[in-house]
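User: I'm writing a short methods note and want a consistent example. For Cadherin-2, I'll paste the sequence; you return only the structure tokens, no commentary, since I'll be parsing the reply automatically.
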Amino acid sequence: QAPIKATCEDMSCKTGFPEDVHSAVVSRSVHGGQPLLNVRFRSCDGNKKIHFGSSEPEDFRVSEDGVVYAERSFQLSAEPTEFVVSAQDKETQEEWQMRVKLTPEPAFAGASGKDQKKIQDIIFPWQQYKHSSPLKRQKRDWVIPPINLPENSRGPFPQELVRIRSDRDKSLSLRYSVTGPGADQPPTGIFIINPISGQLSVTKPLDREQIASFHLRAHAVDVNGNQVENPIDIVINVIDMNDNRPEFLHQVWNGTVPEGSKPGTYVMTVTAIDADDPNAQNGMLRYRILSQAPSSPSPNMFTINNETGDIITVAAGLDREKVQQYTLIIQATDMEGNPTYGLSNTATAVITVTDVNDNPPEFTAMTFYGEVPENRVDVIVANLTVTDKDQPHTPAWNAMYRMTGGDPAGRFTILTDPNSNDGLVTVVKPIDFETNRMFVLTVAAENQVPLAKGIQHPPQSTATVSITVIDVNESPYFVPNPKPVRQEEGLLAGSVLTTFTAQDPDRYMQQTSLRYSKLSDPANWLKIDPINGQITTTAVLDRESIYVQNNMYNATFLASDNGIPPMSGTGTLQIHLLDINDNAPQVNPKEATTCETLQPNAINITAVDPDIDPNAGPFAFELPDTPASIKRNWTIGRISGDHAQLSLRIRFLEAGIYDVPIVITDSGNPHASSTSVLKVKVCQCDINGDCTDVDRIVGAGLGTGAIIAILLCIIILLILVLMFVVWMKRRDKERQAKQLLIDPEDDVRDNILKYDEEGGGEEDQ
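Assistant:
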């Protein structure tokens, strides 16, 4: 450090800078915000407001108190750095200028003994008192330049740095001290000062990576502890030494690059850090590739930006099908890559070559063969195999198959097996051997994604598939099926109804004629000839049968061949029965009740005919001529086509049960009529027309069937009583006969023994 001396101010005052050029020596490495020097400006009027400026504001800033600070961090060149400091009066706008020349200090060279530099002094700024004026002013002449101290010094310790003193130590006994981190604050004890001589020393090696600079404050007091000088700031910068190797953020770096990439394609970035000063050569790193494995197709497939660590391709020929992965050894060296003085470290970069669709699928054969039985669906008839050099189970490898010819009806489809990538030719529509005995399909295979640009291969591969249809024994089929037949009911048994035959689709098989049989005939009305299929009746066809629904009777027949295996087919015969007038109408209900007086005595009846129109209603109702009492006591009148009303002709009819015959005739051609008996119960009625003669009504309510049932019950009960009496008598006779068969010697009475014992009681009994 250059000695800093205090000079006396001239008694004659002149406002402005005391010199036109001010030279200062500063450290080579300048940090942003670092104070560099203090410019001296003399103001004869203490009330002037001076504003300082710099001609290089992006590099240097001048504060209001004249301290020049660095605006950014940079390295001073070997040549002096010059700039202009200006001062302007804010009121009068008067301006003064001074040129500042900064010279970098020479490189530090550690020395000891005789070669050690002389310890330099730092003198406190002095205070001036103007006796002619009550004004007391302190003048700061300069800012103390930083002390640069290299890290990892070997000593000896304590190592003297500078001496702090005040120019008043000639007249006063002073004591010196330093405060701040590294002195009396953690980490304490790194810097010490001799309180008498002011000698500042360092006690141990410094580590810039832990603390890059120390900011201390020096104090000077008298023996009574009174402050003699204002404290001064001392900045100690720890000069970086190249004591740290570069360290990669990861020991293994992984990256990818598509195959076929052009030279200059970005791959990945590797990054290393150095704990040394990044603004000095010690922390400036350079990257390079030491090795590449494998070395095909070129030993220099990649290059690295030596400053940023960006890895890019430098040669063409990346082919995943040949080399799937490259391993690079990357070296980072500080000292800007100086192989002699720089420290190095290595890491591994693993570059995976990703697949692109540069290989189309290729069929393993030009023709594939398969066979399928006729009439079978959802069966695989052929496996189409392809090869694809791209990465399996990716869109560039997955194959899609399609038919380009030979299947206009769409009987086949091709599915892709997701595991093997094979094409599965599958039948989706039945195939008739008698129509098509062989198919020759043209198929194509291509990937799910299109081929990459610039690939010279065709995008798809083609092949043919020859499929043979196998003839199998097919079931006979009736024509037509179902077969409709219209026939009037009443057809007599033994009549020929129709002929129902089937056809055998197997024209190329040696088989005998078909045989027929009956499979379903609910009413058992029909039979079929087993040879020619002629159907004849075995009973009268009746439309009113319970087996006929909506005038339709269904019967099912079977046709069988003698193939291997035997096959059969069914056919349905639908007989539509036409109605004839074969049923006479009947009265409904069969029983009715009326009063014995004339009013009210009407009975509503309905005619029921199983036949349908025109062989049913409207109906004609009338009473027979015999017996004569019917027409004398009763009268009948038609209400509508199906309904009539029966009522008394006379004023009074004795209570009882009367059988009233009614003749009903339908509208068929010819007409059909019948005489139905209506059982009428005549009883005494109240004013509302309800029967009041309950006993007689109940008696009258017992019909012939009910009376017969009661008599049968009584007879059965008498038979049971008679059988029980006979059984009891027979049991008594058997008991008496058994007693006569007992042997007299076994008589219990002769086997009783008498003992001369007393006290018998219940136990002897």
